[in-house]
Specification:
heterodimer; A: mainly alpha; two-stranded antiparallel sheet; disordered N terminus; B: six-stranded mixed β-sheet; four-stranded antiparallel β-sheet; globular
Amino acid sequence: MSYQIENTRQAAGGTRWLTRRGGTRVRIQPNVILLGFNSLLTDISSEMVNTVLPLYLLFALRLAPVQFGLIDGLYQGGAVLVRAASGFVSDRRRDPKGVAAVGYGLSAVCKIGFLVITTPFAALAGLVMVDRLGKGIRTAPRDALISQSTEPENLGIAFGVHRALDTAGAMIGPLLAFLILSVASQGYDAIFMVSFCFALCGLALLILFVRNPPEPNDEDSRPKVTGRDVATLLKAPGFAGILGIGAALSVATVSDSFLYLSLQEQLQFNMSLFPLLYVVTAVVFMVLAIPFGRVADRIGRTPMFVGGYVVLAFAYVSLLVPTALPFQFVLTLILLGAYYAMTDGVLAALASSLLPENVRGSGLGVLSTATGAGRLVASVLFGVIWTAVGLHAAVAIYLVGLVVVLVVTALLLRTRQALANA
Amino acid sequence: MPSPRPKSKRQSSPAKASATPASKPVTSPRRAGFLGGWSPIAVFGAIVVASIIVSALYVALAVLRSPNRGGQLALASPTAGASAQVPGASSQTAAAVTPSAASQGAGQATEIVFQNVQRDNGYAQVAVVPASDPSAARDITDIACERVHYAAGRGICLNADYGVIANYYADLFDSSFRPVTRIPLEGAPTRARVSPDGRYGAATTFVYGHSYADINFSTATLLIDMASGNILGNLEDFTTYRDGQQWREQDFNFWGVTFSSADSNIFYASLRSGGLTYLVKGDIGTRSMQVLHQNVECPSVSPDGTRIAYKKLGEGLVGQWRLTMLDLATMTETPLAETRNIDDQAEWLDDHTVLYGDGENIYQVPADGSGTPSMFIADGLSPAVVR
């Protein structure tokens, strides 16, 4: 089933992307495409700055390392907390587009800020914080918009399309930044300005063309979403389970940088090749995001999501096998990219399908706060374990942890299925 | 932030209809209001065009400003009004002091070579001022460095080309600030030193991690023969002794070399292992080092060879670095009057004063813990005292 003319969402679109799905065609709503290109532009903007920020802060502004560490921490953790809040606000105002626009706008303004503010340290730290705040604000309402613009049975592929475009931006950004630095060795101001321009175009795309989901005619008779509604989120069938599984799996996930460092230790390749690792992983993610989203729509999103972590476990195994062959290098990166394609968009699709429409933003926000916090814990913990027992052993410990969480997850899912069938 | 919420179901402007022809039944945001009747596509197009123009302009300006354009490094041209103080750069100016390998050791400071960080004037390029009048107009050379050091007619400049894959290198330059040899490096530059007699150079780079604050940073320190440009060795390949016993750990990291004025074969450096830092004294002749003291980072030995100025990590989870002086005869430590967190390898102006950068300016402070810090060179970093 792929076409319903009665569906106002479908009738709303002018142009649509058509994607083959089995024998039939899947329609990707213009909103999803627009949000995808908006993310592409925004990711070019933010990744340009992201890649050069360490260089800029340490070598151009000569920040002391302790200060740099603090800013880096803000950068990594700053976005996590506001996600749930922004999701709630977007539900309450029934205006995911407006809330997302505030987030995109904040980050855009910060790019100009980097151009102007070079001192004092507090102002710089504040700027990084606000930039990440913008990222935290926009994520949940944007995902809510994607899900509300899409038929439930096509959620996987819709998120796949969005994540593929998003990742393309994440690859173009660093390349562009390094391109600018290679022709202008101190061209940080140019990078910030170009980054701002991309952010501005992304924001314009959102404000001018993306539309909020249609509201029922009896708009005013519908009660506003309250804190109480959000509290009942956990009662939405299956959502609490996904929240728990998502958070637990995040804690057992080694962050990419650590995996790459481990790969480097194993194979002793030149450190200047480091950026290439991110690119290879991103290419695999980008290529697989749409097909895996489509498969998830057909075979079920939960198996796809859990399967992604099984793939991740194999990536750890591939890291731990002492071969030092180029083959291992490539395999690990492919597994890592596949893991992203099987989990990132799929989780958003999975949660969207479980959440009632009026609290979808809040639910997605809570979910991404939980997984983000889980990842933060995982990174801190991994750093501690690495210091204590070494990099290789730390990966092995995380592998064991991941397998344990996976086994428990599989058992829980089977029990639930058995209960549902009973 | 205008955030149009769908209120009515009526198309409000013909221009908008052309943008989304099939969108009749669903929404009609109040776009006409804030676009003033412009079609969204026209507005978007205008924003994109403006963005492209501004971006191109900024990049073009950055390229024109870039000091290392085309990798060409030319002789410094002294700015109008400033006398040619570039060490050895000029034979036409009688007043120019030309340091040579002969005038080594604990002689009088003649010039200060440093990294200029005036934002609108040769940013990151190496500059020179007379030691007697450091606030005089600076001569800005054409070489740009992230770290620079210079002694006895030879200099070392650590720099990077940030291409798609960053390219790090050390350029050895002569007294005319002309690069002579390029040595590829493996990571981001952090410390550079030339021995007072100009014979040896040392370059420290981060192999991974970007800073000393990163718990898991790893550094590589190379010793370089300044005349030939040959690499004499990585300090990790030297033999280390502690309490008379040979000591070797997987996690050894060395950085911040400083050379003795009396005998440039003798050097000091920081060693980190097991989360602790140590001061080591090394001998290039025997390719060995011995541990002298604990909690010493980025040492700098005094011209008379009796003391080490260094940064000492304070207590606490996020400790601050305090500039400190270590008396090598008694091994007593004296904190210097600078109380701010300083991450730099100090440089001795003479036997009583040290120079250091705080990230923006170069300061001086008495080496015995007395007095107060004072500004030495504004908008400068990485000072090297030429004697």
